[in-house]
Amino acid sequence: MEGWTTWEGEKPHLVGNQCQSCGDYFFPKVYSCRNPRCMSRDLKEVPLSREGKLWSFTVGYYEPPPPFRALGTFTPYGLAVVELLKEKMMVMGQVASGVDMENLKVGMNMEIVLEPLQKDSEGNEVIIWKWRPVKG
Amino acid sequence: MKSSSGSGGRLKVSPFPLSCPTERERKAGRMGFLRGSFSERKEIMGKEIAVLGIGMHPWGKWPEKKFVEYGLTAARNALKDANLEWKAIQYVAAGSTIYSGIPGLMAGSAFCEEMGWIGVPVINNFNACATGAYAMDAARARILAGLCDVALCIGMDWAPKGFFAPPGTKDPTDLDALRFKMGATNPSYFAMYAMRRMQNYGTKEVDLAMVKVKNSRHGLHNPNARFRKEFTVEEVLGSPMVSSPLRLYELCATSDGAAAIILSSMEYARKVTTHPIQIAAISTVSPRYPDAMINIPRISTDSTYSTSPEMNFQKYVPQKAYEEAGIGPEDLSLAEVYDLTSAYELDWYEYISICKPGEAEGLLRNGDTTIGGRIPVNASGGLSSFGEAVPAQAIAQVCELVWQLRGAAGQRQVKGAKVGLTANFGLLGNASSVIVKR
Question: Whole-prediction pTM value?
Answer without folding.
Answer: 0.91
